[in-house]
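Holo prediction — pyridoxal-5'-phosphate.
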Amino acid sequence: MSWLHDASKEILGRIQEVKEAKAWPFFRPMENVGSRVKVGSGSYVNFTSNDYLGLSRDPRVMKAGVKGIRDYGTGLGSARPQATSVRHEELERRLATWLGYEACMTFTTGYQSLVGTLSAFLDDDTTLILDRLCHASIMEGMFLARGEHPDMEVRFFKHNNMRLLEKCLRTSEYDKKMVVAEGYYSVDGDMGPLDDMVDLCKKYGAVLVLDDAHGLGALGPTGRGVGEIFGCQGDIDILIGTFSKSFGGIGGFVCADRDLVDFLMLKARSFMFSATLPVAQVEAALTALDIIENEPQHLRRLHRNGELFRAGLEDLGFDLGNSQGHITPIYLRDELLTMKFGAYLFHGGDIMMMPFISPGVPPGTERLRCNITAAHTRAEMSYALEALAKIGPMLEVLPEGTSTRASDLQRVGWLLQHKLRGVRNAGVPYLVNELSDSAQKAVDYGRRMLNGAHRQ
Ligand SMILES: Cc1ncc(COP(=O)(O)O)c(C=O)c1O
C-alpha cells in the first residue's frame, strides 16, 4: 500500500455504495452500439450516444474503414511528421473546402485538437477568455499553456453572457486576446449568440476559437454547425471539430488559414508527439463527409426526432433548462435523485440516459443527459416518454397522474416493438431473461393472491 492507495480509497468507497445500490451508470460493457445496445442479457434503448446521424453503423462508412485497414494496416506506426498518408491530405482538403477555410489539419482526437491548438498559441503576453462551461479539453489546453507561461491572463465569463464577455474583453490585461467557446454545449444543449460574439471579438481585436464538436454535421440547414445558423461561418478564426460525434468515428480537426495551420503542424505538441489518426478512421470520415454533404435526409431526421422528443418532454412538464435541438437534458437539480432516476430507467425501463452530477456539472444543475439521434425510431422515443411519465411521479419529479397523450393501443404497440427489438438486438439470453421475469411476476402475483394482497 502507498499514498496512492490512500488517495484512491475515499472515492472508491463512495462508488462502492452506489454500485451496491445498482445505481452506478458508468463503464457498462456494451456488446454492440446504436440506438439499441446489449449489456449483459439486457437490451436497452440508448440515449447516451453522440453518434448524432447514426453513421457509425452505416454500411458504407464501415466498408470504408475496412478498406483503410486493407490499404494501410491498423496503424501508421508514428506521428504525423513521419506518418502522413495521401488520404489524410485528401480528408483535410475536403474538410477545409466544406467549411470554407484555406486549410485544415487532423488530430487523433478532438481533445488533442483543443489542447494542442490552445497551448501552441498562448504565451505570457496573452489574455485567454473562456466561457465558464467550456469543455475539459479547452480547460486542459489552458492549464498546459499556463504551466509554461505563468504570466498569461485567464478570464472566465458567465455562460453565454455577452455583456460579461465584453467586460472581460474591455478590461483585459493584454492586447493579444483569444476567446474560446463551444458552438453547441454538449451537456446543456444550448448555444450562445455567435454573431454577437464575432462582433465583440472584432471590436476588441480578439481572435475567436470555436469548438463546434457537437454542432458540425448536426446543426444548421446543411450541417455546417452553429456558424451556419448564425450566418458567420467565415468570421471564426479557428474552427475545431471532431469525428467522434456526427461523423460516427474518432479523430479531431482544426480549420484556419494556411499560415496558422502550417504553424500548428510544427507547434502543436499533441499533433507532433502522438500517433497519427489511423487511415481506417480517415476513410470512414471521408465517407461520412460524403454522406453529410449529399444525403440531407439524415440531418432532417435528426432535427425531426429532436423536435418530437423535446415536445414530448415539454408536454410531460420536465425542466429542460435553456436547451434546444437534439440534446435534451432533463434537469433534476439533485444528485441522489438524478442517480436514482437513471437507475430506475435502466433497471425498470431498459433505457440508458446518463446522469450528470457534480463535479461534471455545477451543483444544483444535476441532470440526465439525453441525446437524440437520427437512428432513434419513433417507437423508441415514444416508449421512452412512457417510461419517463411512469417514473417521474414515482420519484415525485412530476405530479401524480401525469401521462402522455398516447392511447392505450399505441402504448401496447410501443411496448411490443420494444420487446421485439430487444430479442433482435440481444438474442436468446434476452428472451430467457424476459420469460423468467414474466414467470417471476406470475409467481409473485400468485403469492399475493394467496395472501389476499390483491384485494388491497
Ligand atoms: C465540446 C467538446 N469538445 C471536444 C471534445 C473532445 O472530442 P473527442 O471525444 O473527439 O476527443 C468533446 C468530447 O466529448 C466535446 O464534447
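READOUT: The chain has a mean pLDDT of 94.
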